[in-house]
Amino acid sequence: MSENNILARRNEPWREELRKQLKNKERSDRPRAKMPELDAEYRSHSLREEVNTGLTKEQALAEATRCLDCPNPSCMQGCPVSINIPTFIKNIERGEILEAAKVLKETSALPAVCGRVCPQEKQCEAQCIYIKMKKEPVAIGYLERFAADYERESGQISIPELAPANGKKIAVVGSGPAGLSFAVDMAKFGYDVTVFEALHEIGGVLKYGIPEFRLPNAIVDVEIEGLRKMGVKFEKDCIVGKTITHEELREEGYKGIFVASGAGLPNFMNIPGENLINVMSSNEFLTRVNLMDASNPESDTPVYTGRRVAVIGGGNTAMDAVRTAKRIGAERAMIVYRRSEEEMPARLEEVKHAKEEGIEFLTLHNPLQYEGDENGRVSRMLLQEMELGEADASGRRRPVAKEGATSWVDVDAVIVSVGVSPNPLIPSTFTGIDVSKWGTLIVNEETMQSSMSDVYAGGDIVRGGATVILAMGDGRKAAAAMHEALNK
Amino acid sequence: MNKIVDKKYFSENVVWFEVEAPLIAKSRRAGHFVIVRSGEKGERIPLTIASSDVAKGTIEIVVQAVGGSSKKLCELNVGDYITDVVGPLGQATHIENYGTVVCVGGGVGVAPMLPIIEAMKKAGNRVISVLAARNKDLVILEEQVSKYSDEVIIMTNDGSAGHQGVAPDGFEMVANREKVDLCVTIGPAIMMKFVSLTTQKYNVPTMASLNTIMVDGTGMCGACRITVGGKTKFVCVDGPEFDAHQVDFDEMLMRLKAYDNIK
Ligand SMILES: Cc1cc2nc3c(=O)[nH]c(=O)nc-3n(C[C@H](O)[C@H](O)[C@H](O)COP(=O)(O)OP(=O)(O)OC[C@H]3O[C@@H](n4cnc5c(N)ncnc54)[C@H](O)[C@@H]3O)c2cc1C
Ligand SMILES: Cc1cc2nc3c(=O)[nH]c(=O)nc-3n(C[C@H](O)[C@H](O)[C@H](O)COP(=O)(O)OP(=O)(O)OC[C@H]3O[C@@H](n4cnc5c(N)ncnc54)[C@H](O)[C@@H]3O)c2cc1C
Ligand code: SF4
Ligand code: SF4
Ligand code: FES
């Protein structure tokens, strides 16, 4: 890709100049920026205030000097959408922050979102040269967020250049990150894009899943507003396959369909007592609180605020659920996870924040059953203590039950967060589409095209539960491929 | 936003609405439901599509005011808008010529039963409808039901209309005199439980349309889960109709009380 012409951009005179200003040793001796955050006690009662308040401009400029502007920036290989990391960071260093934001937008549709929710420690920052130097990596995520926020707050959001309208109609199924990033690119190419969303809100997991204390809705809304300005249309309350079928979309002249319907089907463990009252999926709990605003007395939707809440699982969703439970009033909020902390799939920062907020971690524990009171409300859970055995196929050490080591713990709500499966709605209504044994849609990895030639797919419906940035990467790939196919 | 184009009271607490929803009107079939939400702070509640008019682009719903959200909806008038209407959801009823079908509807359950009665009749079945209600004033849709039924049996708790008795008694009256091939039942969970116990005695296959608590209605949350034949099912996507003899009604009755002291 020309925009990723890494060396040419690195050789621009201003960059050479900038590199000379400080010695690498001086750069690398500087400490990594600390993200300013709300006080832990205070924020553990505040549902909507964002925990991380964002780097100050001074902090950002200083952090940007740490980046060595490597000739072979390994960090980029860790980013699923290959953001030109040194180019955006060096723009911050020289104070051209709007320019930095533009660089981000070359490859990422939602930098303000990714800067906040990407598991950087496993992606870009894991590949930063500093790791090899046994130092803390450049805070790429913080800087990304800083540049995107700066642009938004400046009111000078750059609207990408659009190709002249070509009149071809394109349908997108689902308004999560995969669907939104696909829509952005197709709008840039000049297509007439309509996004169909089953829920009454646009944004997918960014709205109904990830809580505002991590990702404020206002930030997602600005991005959606940007899409509207580019001419993208949104149809809420419309379930493709139910309200309107893909055959009908074709009849209405849609030339291509991108399926980004996510992996919204919650898994349960199928253990005794799981259908007791107040045992619920994290999807249900988070949807009630985030989408339906249930903890607000003015909302018609109820949510049960347990005093003692256990969340089963160790992923981002589990962390979000347990911290939400604490915020809406739980005295005791616990994570129950069958492996050790090291294997937890959640972002490091979320685990750290959760601990600071007083979340208890019952690692190496697995629920065996739940018991209820006379009204069928859950009242206690039986936990099995675990230990780590041999590594399994995924390379993680397998948890095995410690014989006889079980104990009862009193709870009045349990939130099950042990993963999601692809929602079967699309696979079952797009007759003839190829589906894997896990229920995900099968696509050509290069083009994201499914077995139906006008249907492309990406995000969690293809990958099972994955990440925001991977979903966005899929959206971009699909847009490029569909555009090419439609112009043959 | 969906406009209300017509409204009627079936009884003090039971309201019939005709609502603009052209896409849903076109794609719905008997047994499908919608999720509606009124107001920006409104709750998402499931309601069966009682009928539709494709040409007019409207659907009909019948709402019984039982709590906050259903009351709020019932207060809307012609010309008002329902904030969100999404559907059609669930699996459509499996319609075929079974022979003799007894449809047992209780209370507001008669409304969602109407499209099933109509479809069963059109598929060539002999249809006997049992309408059960607490008293005469709560019997709804008798006229519409009669149109597609070979016989209508009214049961009231106090005997103020039809026969005195409860829904299962109505079924027994038929089963005691002729062979029944299928029973379909929709109504309060407790009624469906007893209808199911009765039809089991007569060995009559029975379909119950379950009305659990829901949030999204698309299989995303699991709030609507129940146990059928020992397995967990989601009513919104696997149902709402299930083999009544396999349903754990006691668990369902318990789960319906989840928010009773909270709302
Ligand atoms: C609580 C939680 C926290 C998370 N935290 C992180 C994190 O910190 N970092 C990270 O990278 N990832 C995180 N993830 C994962 C990440 O959010 C997902 O991988 C990502 O959102 C997937 O994007 P998507 O576009 O494929 O689908 P989704 O975001 O799931 O969006 C799919 C959309 O499609 C709609 N839809 C479904 N079917 C239809 C249909 N038939 N017609 C119309 N619309 C339909 C759905 O209603 C939904 O809005 C988290 C997930 C959850 C649930
Ligand atoms: C698939 C499906 C189809 C339905 N079709 C219709 C319909 O056509 N017409 C209609 O009037 N109602 C229908 N219902 C029931 C309707 O959704 C509920 O009555 C409504 O959600 C109650 O909300 P509320 O806030 O008014 O009452 P709440 O305050 O939530 O509840 C008041 C009382 O009603 C009980 N209740 C709560 N939810 C339900 C429920 N889902 N079913 C039965 N009792 C409940 C509660 O236990 C409580 O005692 C259907 C439900 C389902 C799942
Ligand atoms: S998008 Fe994510 S992985 Fe890529 S640079 Fe930004 S934070 Fe890192
Ligand atoms: S690897 Fe690290 S130091 Fe090198 S360019 Fe990337 S962020 Fe900068
Ligand atoms: S209502 Fe959410 S899964 Fe059925």
Considering the chains and any ligands shown, give keywords for the structure.
heterodimer, A: 488 residues, alpha/beta, Fumarate Reductase Iron-sulfur Protein, Chain B, domain 2, FAD/NAD(P)-binding domain, 4 domains, 5-stranded parallel beta sheet, 37% helix, 17% strand, B: 263 residues, Elongation Factor Tu (Ef-tu), domain 3, Rossmann fold, 2 domains, 7-stranded mixed beta sheet, 5-stranded antiparallel beta sheet, 17 strands, globular, binds flavin-adenine dinucleotide, binds iron/sulfur cluster, binds FE2/S2 (inorganic) cluster
Characterization of the model:
The complex is a heterodimer of chains A (488) and B (263). By secondary structure, chain A is an alpha/beta fold. Chain A contains 21 helices and 15 strands. In chain A, the strands form four sheets. Chain A has a five-stranded parallel β-sheet. In chain A, strand 11 and strand 12 form a beta hairpin. The mean pLDDT of chain A is 93. In chain B, helix 3 (110-122) packs parallel to helix 4 (142-148), helix 5 packs parallel to helix 6 (189-201) and helix 6 runs antiparallel to helix 8 (249-255). In chain B, a hairpin with a 7-residue loop joins strand 3 and strand 4 (45-48). Chain B has 263 residues and is α/β, with parallel strands linked by helices. Chain B has a seven-stranded mixed β-sheet with strand order 12-11-10-9-13-14-17, with helices on both faces. In chain B, strands 5-6-2-1-7 form a five-stranded antiparallel β-sheet. Chain B has a three-stranded antiparallel β-sheet with strand order 4-3-8. Chain B contains eight helices and 17 strands. Classes of the chains: A alpha/beta (488), B alpha/beta (263). The A-B interface holds A 198-200, 236-239, 242-245, 264-266, 268, 270, 274-275, 277-278, 280-281, 283-284, 287-288, 292-293, 296, 298-304, 375-376, 423-425 and B 23-24, 27, 37, 39, 41-44, 68-69, 72, 83-89, 215-216, 218-223, 225-227, 232, 237, 251, 254-255, 257-259, 262-263. The structure holds flavin-adenine dinucleotide (FAD) (2 copies), iron/sulfur cluster (2 copies) and FE2/S2 (inorganic) cluster (FES). One iron/sulfur cluster (SF4) binds at residues 79, 81, 83, 85, 108, 114-115, 118, 120, 123-124, 140-141, 144, 469 of chain A.
